[in-house]
Backbone:
């Protein structure tokens, strides 16, 4: 997750709109990985997710001069990424593979077998979720966004996001009981 305030993110985007390449570099370093993991559940392949990241930052360069400061900058970035991912998905009919391995920082002392089993269990649980629920989990659990921030990024009300989280928790309880 990036370490910049709303104002700092907005200032970076405005600077990019004025041609500031250093601001673009800072924004890319701060958001490229987060954008990648945000679109991965949508696009489903590592290669296409990387393409979406590149296309997102190209679009940011093209549209930064039209950015309105009353919009939260990271929500704007994620909206661009989501739109590009959905467009690319429609064009490419992405494969149904979802790679969760990159989401986690592995404990070096864990055996490869334990890591693989953990990945399989996480993948099986994620497969039970809708794409929207997968995105909520990634933003909440891997990037520590608050539910309010997630609601802005996804474009749903806070109440809706809270309901989705409750549904996810219920699905997880059932999954753990079955497994």
Residues:
């Amino acid at each position: 997750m990036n370490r910049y305030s709303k104002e700092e993110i907005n200032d970076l985007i405005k600077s990019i709109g004025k041609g500031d390449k250093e601001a673009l570099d800072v924004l890319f370093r701060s958001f490229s990985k987060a954008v990648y993991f945000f679109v991965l559940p949508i696009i489903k392949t590592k290669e296409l997710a990387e393409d979406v990241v590149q296309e997102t930052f190209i679009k940011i360069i093209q549209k930064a001069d039209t950015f309105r400061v009353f919009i939260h900058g990271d929500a704007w970035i994620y909206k661009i990424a989501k739109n590009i991912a959905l467009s690319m998905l429609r064009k490419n009919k992405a494969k149904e593979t979802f790679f969760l391995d990159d989401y986690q920082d592995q404990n070096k002392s864990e055996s490869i077998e334990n890591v693989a089993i953990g990945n399989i269990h996480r993948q099986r649980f994620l497969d039970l979720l809708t794409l929207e629920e997968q995105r909520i989990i990634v933003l909440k659990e891997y990037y520590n966004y608050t539910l309010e921030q997630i609601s802005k990024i996804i474009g749903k009300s806070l109440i809706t996001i809270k309901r989705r989280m409750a549904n996810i928790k219920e699905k997880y309880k059932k999954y753990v009981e079955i497994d």
Notes: Residues 94-110 have pLDDT under 50 and may be disordered. The longest helix spans residues 21-43.
